[in-house]
Design a protein that fits this description.
The chain is an alpha+beta fold and about 725 residues long. The protein has 15 helices and 31 strands. The strands form seven sheets. Strands 1, 2, 3, 4, 5, 6, 7, 8, 11, 12, 13, 14, 15 and 16 form a 14-stranded antiparallel sheet that branches. A hairpin with a 2-residue loop joins strand 2 (about 10-15) and strand 3 (about 20-25).
C-alpha cells in the first residue's frame, strides 16, 4: 500500500513476516532520465510475531497518513509504524513490542553494478525505442560509521547532451537549463542502537540485488530506523553530503514533534474537501460507496507529492513497483515504468492536476506550474533558434529540460525536415497542451485570489507563440499572414494526437479563445492598458470554431480540415472540457450534446480507461446516467490489492491520469461553476446519497448533504455566495 508525505512515496508490504518498502522521491533522474527508486528497505524481528502468527493486520491510517502493521504470535504482540515526515525528506520506521526483540534492517539496491538496459527496459528512460546501447550506471553504497550511505551522481554526459546535439541546439547549449548536470541523489539509513553487520546478495522476484545490513546491539522492546533522503545539483559529492548532514541535523532537532505535526497536516488535508458517497450502506454492496472511497484513496496518493520540485507523474507517480506484477512481459527492475521517467506527457499530466482546484489542494499545484515556469527560457530559446520569432513552443512529450523527448523527436529524420517539429505521426505540431496549464493558473487566481504575477510571462508567451508562429508559417507560404477575415491560419496543426495535419484545430482555438479571454478578465494590476490592447488584438486573430453535420445534426468539428485520424481522443469536445465554452447554463448546449450523441468518430472513441474524459464530458453536458455509469467504471476497484492502483490502460500502473480524470468527473457531477454561478448537483443521480465539501471560485467552499433525493444540508462560505447557488431544477 502507498505511504508518503512531502515529496516521498513508499510502497509498503509484509512478506514472510518481514516489512519491506520501496522508496521514491520527486526529482531523482539518472543520466538516461530514468526516475529510479532510492532502493528497498527490509525489516526483520527476532523472535518474530509476524511470522506464522495468530493474527496480522496492515492498515493505511488514511486520516493521519501512515501505515500501521500489527501482529501476534501466542502472547507476543508487536506493532510497526511506517511514516514520512511531510516537512522534511525523512522516512521513519518505529517498532514497538511487548517482548524484547532483535532487529535486522537491510538496505537493498539493484544498481550496485553497471548494467545495459534491455530493449523494452529503455522505455523507462528517454531513449525508449532507440537501438542505441544504454548503460545504467551504478550507485555508490557503503557503511559510514554506524550508518549506510548511498547515492548516485550523474555523469558529466547525460541524455540532455545527446538531445541538444540531436535537435541542433549546440550553438545555444550554454543558455539552456540542464537539470541533470551534477544531479546527486541518495541518502543515509540509520538505526538507533544499531551497528553494521555485513553485506549480502539475493534475488527478489526477478531482480538481483545487493544488501547492506544493520543489526541491533541488543534485544529491546522498541527500535527506531530513519532514512534521510537528499537531492541536489551539487558542485561535488562533498557538497551533497554537507546538505544531507543539514537535513539530519534538522530532523534530529525536530524529532519530538515531527510525527504529531505530520499527522496534523494530514488531518487538515482531509478537512479541505471530501466526497463520501452512500456512507450508511454496506460497503461491499455499494458501487457508489467504492467510487467515493477510491476518490479519497487517489487523492491521498496525490497528497504524497504535495511539495515536490517536480509534478506527480501520470505514469505511476511515486508508487511504481516490480513491473512483472503489471505485465509479465516486463521482466525488469523496480525502476521501470512505461513512457519515461523524466518525460512529462502534457495531455496526461493535466488530468492529474485539474481536480486539485475543486479539492482545494492549491499548494499541491505549484510543482506542475513551476515545472513550466522553470522551462520557459528553454522553450522560448528553442522557438527563437528555429524560427526567429517570440513565444514558447512547449511540445507534448516534454523532457524535464524543456525539449522534445529524444526518441519522440524522431530518430530517422529526413534531410531538411523542420528541426523545430517532431518527426512523429502522433506528436507533430502538438503544442497546445500548455494552454491547459495556463487556464489552470488563471483558475487558481480566480479560486484563491493569489498573486500569479510570477506566472504571467509563461501565460503570455504560451499564447504569443501561436500568434507569431502561424503568421510566420503563412508568410512562408504566401504574401498574406492572415486569412481574408483577419484570422490566423492554424495550419499545419493537430487536434490532440487524433486528428492530424489539421487546419484550424478546435482544441487549439478553444484553448486560445478561453485563455486570452480570461487574461482580459484579470484585475487591472496584471496588465497595462497597452498590454490589454495587445491581448485583444491576439484574441481577434483567433479563428472561430468549425462545425459539421453528423447524422443530420449540427456538431462541433474537430477542425476545419484534417488529413487523417489515428488515435482515440475526442478533441471536438475540448470546448466542453477543459475550456468550458459549452455546458450547463451556457448557450448552444444542444450543439455539444449533438457532438456526444451523433459524431460517429466520437462514438467510436468512447472509453473509460486511463486518460479518456468521457465521464467529464457527460457531467458537463448534464447527462447524469452516462456520467454516473462511466465514473463508476473509472473509479471502481482496480483489481489489484490496492483499490486505486488502476492501469495499465494506455500508460502504466498506478495510472494517475486514470485517477485524475475520475476525480474530475465526480467533482463535475457534484458541482459546476460559470462565472459567479455555482450549479449544485448538475449531474448527480438521485439514488446516490452524498456528503461533500468542494471549493469554488472567489474563495468559496460549498458543503452539503444530498440524502434520498433531497438537499438536507447546505453550507456556503462565505454566506454571501449562497445567492449564487443554482439547485437542480432551478
Amino acid at each position: 500500500m502507498p505511504c508518503g508525505g512531502g515529496d516521498i512515496g513508499l510502497n509498503v508490504w509484509m512478506e514472510n513476516g518481514e516489512l519491506l518498502f520501496y522508496m521514491s522521491r520527486s526529482g531523482a533522474f539518472d543520466e538516461n532520465n530514468v526516475f529510479p527508486k532510492f532502493g528497498r528497505v527490509r525489516v526483520k524481528l527476532s523472535p518474530n510475531p509476524f511470522e506464522e502468527g495468530t493474527s496480522f493486520r496492515q492498515e493505511l491510517k488514511l486520516q493521519e497518513g501512515y501505515v500501521e502493521v500489527t501482529g501476534q504470535k501466542g502472547n507476543h504482540t508487536a506493532k510497526i509504524n511506517a511514516w514520512v515526515d511531510v516537512f522534511r525528506p525523512v522516512i521513519h520506521i518505529e517498532v514497538a513490542s511487548n517482548k524484547s526483540v532483535n532487529a535486522e534492517v537491510y538496505y537493498e539496491n539493484w544498481r550496485a553494478q553497471y548494467r545495459e538496459l534491455a530493449a523494452g527496459e529503455k522505455f523507462a528512460s528517454s531513449y525508449k525505442w532507440s537501438k542505441e546501447k544504454v548503460i545504467s550506471h551504478k550507485d555508490d553504497i557503503s557503511f559510514r560509521g554506524s550508518d549506510i550511505l548511498f547515492y548516485h551522481r550523474n555523469l558529466d554526459s547525460t541524455i540532455f547532451d545527446h538531445t541538444v546535439k540531436q535537435q541542433g541546439l549546440e550553438s545555444v547549449k550554454a543558455q539552456l537549463l540542464n537539470p541533470l548536470k551534477n544531479l546527486t541523489y541518495g541518502g543515509l539509513m540509520r538505526g538507533e542502537n544499531m551497528r553494521p553487520a555485513g553485506t549480502s546478495t539475493g534475488k527478489y522476484i526477478n531482480t538481483e540485488y545487493s544488501a547492506w545490513k544493520l543489526q541491533s546491539n541488543r534485544a529491546q522492546r522498541s527500535h527506531r530506523v530513519e532514512v534521510y533522503l537528499h537531492i541536489d545539483q551539487a558542485s561535488s559529492v562533498a557538497t551533497w553530503e554537507s546538505g544531507l548532514e543539514k537535513i539530519i541535523q534538522d530532523a534530529t532537532a525536530a524529532q519530538r514533534t515531527a510525527f504529531s505535526r505530520t499527522k496534523e497536516w494530514w488531518r487538515q488535508f482531509w478537512q479541505r474537501s471530501y466526497v463520501f458517497i452512500d456512507p450508511d450502506k454496506p460497503h461491499a454492496d455499494s458501487s457508489p460507496w467504492k467510487v467515493g472511497r477510491n476518490y479519497q484513496l487517489f487523492r491521498y496518493m496525490l497528497g504524497c507529492n504535495a511539495y515536490g520540485k517536480y509534478p506527480t507523474k501520470f505514469n505511476g507517480g511515486l508508487f511504481t513497483y516490480d513491473p512483472v506484477f503489471v505485465e509479465q512481459k516486463y521482466p525488469f527492475t523496480p525502476d521501470h515504468r512505461q513512457w519515461g521517467g523524466g518525460t512529462f506527457t502534457a495531455q496526461n499530466q493535466r488530468l492529474v492536476y485539474w481536480p486539485m482546484l475543486k479539492s482545494g489542494d492549491f499548494d499541491m499545484m505549484a510543482p506542475q506550474f513551476d515545472f513550466y515556469r522553470r522551462l520557459l527560457p528553454n522553450a522560448e530559446l528553442r522557438t527563437r533558434h528555429y524560427w526567429g520569432h517570440a513565444g514558447a513552443s512547449f511540445t507534448e512529450q516534454i523532457e524535464n529540460f524543456g525539449l522534445p523527448n529524444y526518441a519522440e523527436y524522431g530518430l530517422n529524420r529526413p534531410e531538411g525536415f523542420d528541426p523545430g517539429v517532431e518527426h512523429n505521426a502522433w506528436l507533430e505540431y502538438h503544442w497546445d497542451t500548455s494552454l491547459d496549464f495556463c487556464l489552470m493558473i488563471l483558475d487558481m487566481q480566480r479560486f484563491t485570489g493569489k498573486d500569479i504575477t510570477g506566472y504571467m510571462p509563461l501565460i503570455e508567451s504560451s499564447v504569443a507563440f501561436f500568434d507569431r508562429h502561424y503568421q510566420y508559417r503563412a508568410g512562408l507560404r504566401g504574401a498574406k499572414r492572415l486569412d481574408q477575415e483577419g484570422h490566423l491560419v492554424l495550419y499545419p496543426g493537430t487536434a490532440a494526437e487524433t486528428y492530424k495535419m489539421t487546419y484550424n484545430a478546435t482544441s487549439t482555438i478553444a484553448g486560445l479563445q478561453t485563455v486570452l479571454g480570461r487574461m482580459l478578465e484579470l484585475p487591472d494590476e496584471y496588465a497595462s492598458p497597452g498590454k490589454r490592447t495587445e491581448w485583444e488584438g491576439m484574441l481577434k486573430r483567433v479563428p472561430p470554431i468549425s462545425f459539421q453535420e453528423m447524422q443530420g445534426h449540427k456538431t462541433i468539428a474537430p477542425a476545419k480540415v484534417w488529413e487523417r485520424v489515428q488515435n482515440s481522443e475526442i478533441p471536438q469536445l475540448y470546448p466542453v472540457f477543459p475550456y468550458g465554452m459549452y455546458g450547463i447554463g451556457k448557450p448552444d448546449l444542444e450543439v455539444a450534446l449533438n457532438t456526444w450523441r451523433y459524431d460517429t468518430v466520437a462514438i467510436k472513441n468512447r472509453n473509460y480507461i486511463s486518460w479518456h474524459q468521457d465521464n467529464i464530458f457527460c457531467a458537463r453536458l448534464g447527462l447524469t446516467d452516462e456520467a454516473a455509469a462511466i465514473t463508476t467504471q473509472k473509479l471502481s476497484d482496480s483489481g489489484r490489492r490496492f483499490p486505486a492502483f488502476w492501469g495499465p490502460g494506455h500508460d502504466y500502473v498506478p495510472d494517475h491520469n486514470w485517477g485524475g480524470s475520475g476525480m474530475i468527473g465526480l467533482q463535475e457531477m457534484l458541482m459546476q461553476t460559470d462565472g459567479r454561478k455555482i450549479f449544485l448537483l448538475p449531474a448527480w443521480p438521485e439514488e446516490w446519497n452524498v456528503h461533500f465539501k468542494l471549493h469554488a471560485p472567489y474563495n468559496t467552499t460549498v458543503e452539503g448533504k444530498f440524502i434520498n433525493g433531497k438537499v438536507e444540508e447546505l453550507v456556503v462560505t462565505p454566506k454571501a455566495r449562497r445567492k449564487d447557488i443554482v439547485l437542480p431544477g432551478a
